[in-house]
Amino acid sequence: MNESILITGANIGLGKETARQLALKKETKKIILFCRNQARAEAAKNELEKQTGKKIFEIIIGDVLDVNSVRKAVEKIKEPIDAVILNAGGMVGKTAAKITSSGMNELAATNILGHVVLVDELIKHDKLKKAVLSVSAEAVPGVKLLGMKPVAMKTSSVDEFAGVLDGSYFGNKFDVTQAYGYVKYVTTLWTLSMARKYPNLKFVVVSPGNTKGTLAPNYLPPAMRFMLKNLMMPVVFPLMGNMVHELEVGAKRFVDGISDDRYKSGVFYASAAGKLSGDLVDQSTFYTDLKNTSFQDNADIAIHRFIK
What we know:
Layout: E1 4-8, H1 13-23, E2 30-35, H2 38-52, E3 57-61, H3 67-75, E4 81-86, H4 106-124, E5 128-135, H5 158-166, H6 176-197, E6 202-206, H7 222-240, H8 247-259, E7 268-271, E8 280-282, H9 293-304
Helix pairs in contact: 1-2, 1-8, 3-4, 4-6, 5-9, 6-9
């Protein structure tokens, strides 16, 4: 039972809806909205209070792209929290390949850098009591029906993972839709490594699935974005079954993943093979690289190369 939960990227989309759903659980006493922008965070807080009738929302400002910003944010957390949902991230867009001050490309830094620092700092200062939920995607095991190939690395070495994080792995052609799957693979493996490193805490990975109302389609190339918004989402996916769901369903995956004992530490839960919606299943049952503890540890080491 989690009484206090911190959610990154909580002012919009899945993060905000997750906060709303958690607030309606009787055991929830405090929700920290971890956001970059004060004005947007305040607007989200006000709306959530109106929607839920609860005055349990707090704001902490921090930028997951900035290691020092995250460390300063953790200093503001005075009492230990039960759980963290690492929701901030996404495909980023045109600047995805840009190298940040950390040495990671912006896509990797947005999805990984600040989250790893956040968890490391919370643990270091004994401010995390129970659970961490990382967000991944069906892009990791792939979805054959949509032409999404599984992530397939040659060695899954430390150097190869570092190449994903700085973009060199992809050579001169950086395709954000492809790179996104690889970045989420690194995120997933890091989380699984943490589950082994800290057996007293629950580290679970969950994909929200193909969720309507998120910003992800906005970051796709124009032609692909048009097809997804105007044909695939409203027409094709509903006909195919288990390929799309509402925002509330995607957020409920996070709520269940962090709250329900059915979802175990050290497991990546997402849709069944070839699907983007429906019941959550253990992805390692058909994507076996997730079980490789050497790959998990290599991902962890590679990430920490970029954290100073």
